[in-house]
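Figure 6 in text form: structure in, sequence out.
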């Protein structure tokens, strides 16, 4: 439908032929989260796949890291080295969300050229995008960021005990977080040949590290009056010798529809995950986890947004979001999970 001019709109309103409920078009109370708060894709790499389920090879770490070279006997040869090979599988299931648009109600907004989220179509497309990002982080937390998932799991306590796998909590001044992370990285490196390069911090764990005297002491002399020293993700990455530190700060409403809101952090705010991961999928490089993504519609998107018309006579249309991924732990020995950090 062609838009009408402000003059024509005024004339129609004066005649009584056009009486919409007018809303501000440059302001709304929409609690959309900043996209930077969503973290699922910042820890483990995305691996696009052509099939919804298939298998991939795994090679035995013990064989790859063993010295298989031996002295050649005179007039003879050494025994062939063994290189163990197995396989694992992934399976991408499709998740969906749908929201409706009343075409008749949307006419008022079309005729007034309402911009941004005042336009029902734009608002609901943005709603779908927000839902898919939210869901992706929730699936990430369920598969990677919770107790009982990783074999190497440590617990915050009042004292450090390597045998019991306990460490001093981050909000205890007796904790030395730099030494702790360095020791954990060294253990993983000794066991796998890879030093962890990702550290995911729950919000409370991050806040405790920011205020920890041992951390503050190390960075305070790098500041000035004009640019005071600040403990942020980049600073912690440098202190720990980690390529990337990510704060798990996305939130969601845990309550059901029609009940009072129960806002929670998606990832446990008191936990942390230390892991080695590749930046991109590789056939000759291990990674603690992968996000296998399936392009179910053939349009190159694993989280596509689709708009379609409703049944005749309903004067409605719908926007749907689809999500097809398998977030899978692929190398258990490349990660350390820390619970009860504070």
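Output sequence:
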């Amino acid at each position: 439908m062609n838009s009408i001019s402000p003059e024509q709109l005024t004339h129609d309103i004066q005649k009584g032929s056009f009486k919409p409920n007018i809303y501000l078009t440059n302001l709304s109370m929409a609690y959309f989260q900043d996209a930077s708060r969503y973290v699922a894709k910042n820890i483990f790499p995305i691996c696009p796949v052509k099939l919804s389920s298939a298998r991939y090879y795994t090679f035995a770490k013990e064989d790859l890291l063993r010295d298989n070279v031996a002295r050649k006997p005179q007039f003879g040869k050494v025994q062939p080295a063994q290189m163990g090979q197995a396989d694992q599988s992934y399976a991408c299931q499709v998740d969906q969300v749908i929201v409706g648009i009343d075409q008749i109600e949307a006419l008022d907004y079309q005729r007034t050229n309402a911009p941004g989220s005042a336009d029902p179509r734009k608002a609901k497309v943005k709603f779908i995008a927000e839902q898919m990002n939210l869901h992706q982080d929730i699936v990430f937390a369920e598969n990677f960021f919770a107790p009982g998932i990783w074999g190497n799991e440590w617990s915050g306590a009042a004292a450090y005990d390597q045998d019991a796998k306990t460490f001093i909590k981050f909000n205890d001044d007796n904790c030395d977080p730099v030494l702790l992370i360095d020791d954990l990285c060294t253990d993983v490196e000794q066991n796998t040949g890879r030093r962890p390069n990702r550290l995911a911090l729950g919000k409370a764990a991050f806040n405790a590290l920011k205020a920890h005297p041992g951390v503050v002491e190390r960075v305070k002399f790098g500041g000035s009056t004009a640019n005071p020293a600040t403990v942020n993700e980049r600073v912690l990455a440098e202190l720990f010798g980690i390529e990337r530190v990510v704060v798990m700060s996305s939130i969601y409403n845990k309550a059901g529809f029609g009940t009072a809101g129960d806002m929670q952090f998606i990832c446990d705010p008191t936990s942390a995950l230390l892991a080695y991961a590749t930046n991109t999928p590789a056939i000759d490089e291990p990674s603690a986890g992968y996000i296998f993504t399936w392009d179910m519609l053939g349009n190159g998107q694993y989280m596509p947004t689709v708009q379609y018309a409703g049944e005749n006579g309903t004067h409605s249309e719908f926007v749907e979001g689809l999500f097809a991924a398998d977030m899978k732990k692929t190398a258990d020995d490349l990660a350390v999970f820390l619970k009860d950090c504070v």
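Caption detail: The CA atoms of residues 58 and 271 lie 29 Å apart.
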